[in-house]
Amino acid sequence: MRLETVDVIGGGAWGTALAQAAAMAGRTVNLVVRDVAQADEINGNRTNQRYLGEQGLHQAITASGEAIAADFVILAVPAQASRAALGAMDPSTLAGKPVVLSAKGLETGTLQRQSEILADMAPGAIPFVLSGPSFAADVAAGRPTAVTLAGDDAELTSALAGALAGPSFRPYAADDRIGVEIAGALKNVYALACGAVDGAELGASARSALIARAYAEMARMVSAMGGSAHTLTGLAGLGDLTLTCTSVQSRNYQFGMALGRGQGVEAILVGGAKLAEGVATTPVADALAKSLGVDAPLVGAVHAVLSGTADIATVVAGLMSRPLKRED
Fold first, then answer.
1. What is d(CA 256, CA 264) in angstroms, rounded to the nearest whole number?
2. Is the same domain home to 138 and 237?
3. DSSP-derived secondary structure for 224-253
């Protein structure tokens, strides 16, 4: 299959960064944006200042207002916007075409993963999931980054990983789409929790314990969904969980810190913070865990804090008073 041209849907920081990575890998990139002025800036000045500051963009990137039927597609809009973005496209143009899903989140209302949304909106498309420890600024700047690319066809997944691999961006091919998707969604929830622990000044020991127990909880969810717990030992699991739960570059971690300082969701947003993906994913993950009968106390605790039904102190006390058991 020819994999020389790519439509990247979404001109935010992550979409622009992935467009940059694809261009650096030798692909010809059409970056689909909604704003004419943004397209003019990208095409004329080779920057996307609103999202990536003065970072220069590769000459192989052209911004436009619509897809051009490229060889493959990268969907790089927020998780809750995926259905609308796909709905704006003719599903027949995606039939038999690789579509790389890069959002990390579960859909409100439907509880669906990103690949399930794609199956609804463009059933003929070939789904792939891109996830792993990566910040847009690092990818766009050409700093060394390794991620996971999961797909059902081993040969095509490897070919697509090769098409995106460049001097500083290294995708590892994998076959567990479900595990990669669930890990990518849940790590944002746990990053909120870790940020809250630090915001409440509960100490590094508490944060480390939380990450370890989050890993175990994530494994239960992945297994219950039909994925492989082994996936969590790699970039999409441990790698992304560690990065997002420990770095102030993480939007979810920053949001969690504000929660830990006692601020509510609305107050945080009024203060100028950007809405983190984990805020929308948390209640969905909580509902999904309950529907599957999975014990997920950390997800439940974050949900309680976000919904305002409990504060950090109450949540921590509840977690610490759970019955003792053998470590799993």
1. 10
2. no
3. HTT--GGGGGSIIIIIHHHHHHH-TT-HHH
- Residue ranges making up the domain that contains 77: 5-175
Q: How many domains does the chain have?
A: 2
Which SS3 state, helix, strand or coil, does residue 196 take? helix
For residue range 25-51, what is the model confidence (pLDDT) as tens digits? 999 999 999 999 999 999 999 999 999
Same domain assignment for residues 312 and 271: yes
Distances (CA, A) of 140 to 144, 165, 276: 10, 14, 20
Indicate the pTM of the whole model. Answer: 0.95
Rounded to whole angstroms, the Cα distance separating 286 from 301 reads: 9
- 3 state SS of 305: helix
Catalytic residue among 104, 187, 290, 325: 187
Average pLDDT over residues 190-195: 96
Tokens for 298, please give them: 């950390």
User: For this structure, is 187 an active site residue?
Assistant: yes
**Token digits for 269?**
């947003």
